[in-house]
Amino acid sequence: MTSDDAPVGRPDWEAYFLAMAMIASTRSTCVRRRVGAVIALDNRILATGYNGSPSGTKHCTDIGCLRQQLGIPSGERHEICRGSHAEMNAIAQAASSGTPINGCSIFVTHEPCSICSKLLINAGCKRIVFMNPYPDELSGILRSEAGLVSDVFENHDDVLRVLSNAAI
Q1: Which of 10, 60, 61, 68 has its CA 20 to 30 A from that of 103?
Q2: Is 87 considered catalytic here?
Q3: Which helix H or strand E contains 85, and what residues bound it?
């Protein structure tokens, strides 16, 4: 290994998990927003998820987005979306493999909506770290009432550095 090939400092755990969430988001089939999530406990990845239609159903990339067609603003009328959010899919992945997530942290490219926040609270998640805000005021209220720690990760360059330094 030459000095030009030497790794540039190890990323901290938050940047690492958020980079993994960004990679997960590349699987999204949502036409409005790509979101990825990583559930971790004791610095170990338990599950990942991305937003998209349930298994075996048509993807929005194939048939279009009903919310977009109806002009529904972001953060409203979540029940009309045919897709499952990244957080939902990560929780479902853990559940389907029998992996307990109580006490976990979740790292998400975007702030969870109120529905995902309720799921995370009831699943025993202790901390949410997200990069981008989401316009759902109730979500923050619920997390605060439940004592679910929510941190905004503002060092986007750190996450991009992790991705750019990944070995090919």
Answers
A1: 10
A2: yes
A3: none
Residue 33, number of CB atoms within 10 A of its CB: 16
Taking the CA atoms of 83, 89, 93 and 99 in sequence, report the sign of the dihedral they define.
negative
- For the whole model, what pTM was predicted? 0.91
**How many CA atoms are closer than 13 Å to the CA of 12, on its beta-carbon side?**
8
**Which residues sit opposite 50 in a β-bridge?**
36
Please, which pLDDT band fits residue 5 given cuts at 50, 70 and 90? low
Q: Show Cβ contacts of residue 128 under 8 Å, excluding neighbours closer than 6 positions.
A: 105, 106, 108, 111, 112, 117, 120, 143, 148, 149, 150, 151
**Residue-wise pLDDT tens digits, 29-85:** 999 899 999 999 999 999 999 999 999 999 999 999 888 899 998 888 888 888 999
Nearest to 116 by CA among 98, 96, 143: 143
Catalytic residue, chosen from 14, 87, 137, 145, is: 87
What stretches of 29-167 adopt beta strand conformation (E)? Answer: 36-41, 44-50, 105-110, 127-132, 149-152
Residue 48: both structure tokens together: 């990942």
